[in-house]
Amino acid sequence: MLAKKFRLSRKEINIIHKKGRRLSAEGVAIKCLANRLGFCRFAVNVPTSVSKKATERNRIRRLVYAEIGKNKPFGNLDCLISIYRPMDENLLREKIKKICLNI
Known about the structure:
There is one protein chain. By secondary structure, the protein is an alpha+beta fold. The chain has a single domain (4-102), classed as Ribosomal Protein S5, domain 2 (2-Layer Sandwich). It has three helices and four strands; from the N terminus they run αβββαβα. It has helices at residues 10-19, 54-70, 89-102; strands at residues 21-25, 28-34, 41-45, 77-83. A four-stranded mixed sheet has the order 1-2-4-3, with helices on both faces. A hairpin with a 2-residue loop joins strand 1 (21-25) and strand 2. Helix 2 (54-70) crosses helix 3 (89-102). The radius of gyration is 13 Å and the shape is globular.
């Protein structure tokens, strides 16, 4: 799990939805917006279209946060990561690693 200073609030998520730039790959999309802090902050969105069960969506969310924690990107961006389709854990981890390296 990421420390609270590396996570975004709901208010900040809404700003990213309005003003952020979107990059997407198979089943994963990321919206980024520059911030004035010296580090990146993240939020993860897993809609009910991925899974109807909250426990499964929370597990996916925890996997993404854990992978971000391992591969902390440098920079000053606020990032909203959205998972749009179900996928294998290993595939999801690979995609998140690529995202972290490209930020």
